[in-house]
Structures are given as structure tokens and as C-alpha cells.
Amino acid sequence: MEIRLSEHSTGKTIYQQVYPDNFNSTLDVQEEDRKFSTASYDINLSENWFEGIHIAHFNIHSAETQHFCLACDEGHLGFFFCLSGIVHSYSDDLKQRLFSIKQNQFYIDSHSKKNTTFSTMAVQGILIRLTQDYYRKIVNEESESDISSSLPWEMPFEVKNIVKGLTIAPFKGRAKRLFIESKILEILVYYINQQPEVSASGMKEEDVKKILLAKAIVEDNIQKPYSIIELSRKAGLNDYKLKKGFKEIIGHTVFGYLNHIRMEKAYQLLYSEKKAVNEVSFLVGYKNSQHFITAFKKKFNILPGSLKRI
């Protein structure tokens, strides 16, 4: 099993590592830290792996946009969590931008994709790879669960906490292995539980992609949300299909989902960044702060101001 990172323009190998089958290791956790510096970019890479699991915590910084290729000779279930910055995914020839992932977003690929072409100036993230054998063992061999995402999604508050734990991993040896695996199981449980019943809905794959595009548009415009008619035009669906499909695929009505992500964003701004309630109310799209306070109390059963004191 081999993973290779290279420069897209020159093909020059930056990093190449051969791993044992299934990421097996004689140690409880195999750990490696590496740094790569050129005149154009700096890359810090920290890896941990053991049976069925590989985690890479990386930080890329450059003065201008750089294009890279990440290749693996085996397909895995991959989770990418963007902690800061932004990264763009491209077709191999760089002619088509497929999607972009920015801070506090994630992307899941369970389609055994082996090669990825991407560009960035600055990004920090965590890439988790699970072998197919490990994933099947966890969800059972008969499962047809597909938790992949056609587009990047916002990281829910619960997942941010799990991922944050992976960046710390304060233990050594067997304890560290158990800690990492417990966090990965939490992530799997969350997403398997959240996955929409797309196949049961009978929707065309193209319509599902349009629903996911509408979801991304809602997430990017929480301050000034679009009306249903405007959103349906941007997503390329009529308003009936949008409302029906959004509920089936996402599990919320459009405005129910808008409220959900507004509250999650507000919680983060209050708890992590300690911003003032009036400012948070504005940032998540409320014109009246009292309406925001009422909605927040209904969602979390606490007043937003109390989070600043935690």
C-alpha cells in the first residue's frame, strides 16, 4: 500500500510512503512527523496509523496558489476535515474545479477514489483513511451504507468536538490507539445515523446533486437567505421538487435546516470565540436579537449569554 504526494506542474515527488497491508503495525500506533520546505511552500505532516486506520494531520502554507496530486494505490473510505484555510479539488487536467472545502467544512469519499488533484495557498486539515476491510467489519459485511458526500458540508458542532480531540490525542501507546479509534467510531456512528435514505426516495441522482447544491447554498448564505423560489432557480429544480427532495435527503425543511445551521454557528461563535450576543445575532442573520435569543433558548435550553461565562 503506497501513498504519494507530488507537485502537479513538475510531477516531483514531495512525499512517498509504503505502508503495510491494511495499515498493520507491530506498534500500538505507528507515528511519523515530517516537514517539507521549498522556496514555494512549507508542509508539516503528522501521521498515525494502525490496523485499518490512517490519520494525517497536515499544514500547508505558500506565498501563492500551489497545485498538488495525492495518489494512493488502494481505495479507502476517506474523511477530510478542514480546520482552517481553503482547498480546491480539480479534475486531473486542472480544467474543471470540482468543489472547494473551507474552514469548518468536511468531505467524505467512499467511492474508492485513488487520485486527487487539489490546490491551496494555506490549509490545515485532518485526512482520515479507513480500509475497506475495516469499514466493512465495523458496519457489517452486508451493509450497503454509503456515507459519501457529493459536496462539502458544514461540520456539525458535535463533529467539531470529535475532530478537535483527534488533534490533541493526549495519550501514548495502547491508550492513544484506543482514544483514536473511539473518536473514529464516534464519527462513523454520527454519519451513518445521519445518512439520508436516498435510495428509498426514488430520486434521480442528478436531482440529489441539485438538492445537495441547494443545501450548500443555504449554508453559504445564512445572513441573507434566499427565498424558496430564488433557491430553486439557483439549484436548477422547481420549488415543489426542492421542498420535497430537501426534506427527504437532508431530513429538514429548507428553513428548518437554515435555523439548524444558524444555531450551530451561533453556538460556535459564542462558546469558542466569546463574541457578544448582539454581534452573533447579526452574524447568523437575525435582525432582532430578541428573536435570536428566543430561538437559541428553544434549541439548546440555555440563554446564549451564558455560554460566554463557560
UniProtKB/TrEMBL annotation:
GO molecular function: DNA-binding transcription factor activity; sequence-specific DNA binding
Gene3D superfamilies reported in the protein's UniProt record: Homeodomain-like
UniProt keyword annotation of Hydrolase present: no
SMART domains per the UniProt record, alphabetical: HTH_ARAC
Entry keywords, A to Z: Transcription, Transcription regulation
Stretches assigned to the HTH araC/xylS-type domain: 212-310
Record bears the keyword Endoplasmic reticulum: no
Protein name: Transcriptional regulator, AraC family
Organism: Pedobacter rhizosphaerae
Lineage: Bacteria, Pseudomonadati, Bacteroidota, Sphingobacteriia, Sphingobacteriales
